[in-house]
TrEMBL record:
Record-level Gene Ontology MF annotations: FMN binding; oxidoreductase activity
Superkingdom in the source lineage: Bacteria
Family annotation (SUPFAM superfamilies): Flavoproteins (SSF52218)
UniProt GO cellular component terms: cytosol
Protein name, as recorded: NAD(P)H-dependent oxidoreductase
InterPro entries per the UniProt record, alphabetical: Flavoprotein-like_sf, FMN_Rdtase-like_dom, NAD(P)H-dep_reductase
Annotated organism of origin: Oceaniferula marina
Domain NADPH-dependent FMN reductase-like: 1-140
């Protein structure tokens, strides 16, 4: 099983990349690939930019990476209640190549933040909109108060650890039955 983990933030210290990578690491015998957004340099999407310069190769690389995996674990960072600008821009460009960019891959959709809501607004937005982009969301989870609930060895709160375990098991089940 090939698992792709994405933290939808361009921060070099992305807690969402940490969370996505940790969730992927709990899947035994899986091949795991991490896709950090840090360093992806693309112009802001616009019709003018696309008509003048075409679609950046980074968008095709992202799409190819999704296609090369059996499942996606995506943890969303929340900026002002929505996606980060870097992630939204990547989605906008990639959807110009393929509107159903998630390709019906089983997806575990996560979010976390330092605050008590754990990125729940962006998680709700993605849960509502990603199916229009070809997402097969099999489970979701929001991890509140990242720095209080996540440590060197993973999630420190037993109830939250159990929630993640259940969500990961749903992802595994979805991949093995498809």
């Amino acid at each position: 099983m090939n698992i792709l983990s994405i933290g939808a933030s361009s921060s070099s210290k992305s807690i969402n990349q940490q969370f996505a990578d940790y969730a992927a690491s709990t899947i035994e015998h899986a091949k795991r690939s991490s896709y950090p957004l840090r360093g992806i340099q693309m112009p802001i999407y616009s019709e003018d930019e696309e008509s003048q310069h075409g679609i950046p190769q980074e968008a095709q690389q992202f799409l190819d990476t999704i296609h090369a995996h059996d499942a996606v674990i995506l943890s969303l960072a929340e900026h002002n209640g929505s996606y980060t600008a870097a992630f939204k821009n990547l989605l906008d460009w990639t959807s110009r190549i393929n509107q159903t960019l998630w390709s019906e891959k089983p997806m575990l959709l996560l979010s976390t933040s330092p605050g008590a809501r754990g990125g729940s607004s962006v998680l709700a937005a993605a849960t509502a909109s990603f199916p229009h982009l070809g997402a097969n969301i099999v489970a979701t989870m929001s991890l509140p108060s990242f720095y209080e609930n996540f440590g060197e060895d993973g999630i420190t709160n037993n109830d939250l650890a159990s929630q993640l375990n259940q969500a990961v098991n749903e992802l595994i089940q979805s991949v093995t039955t498809s």
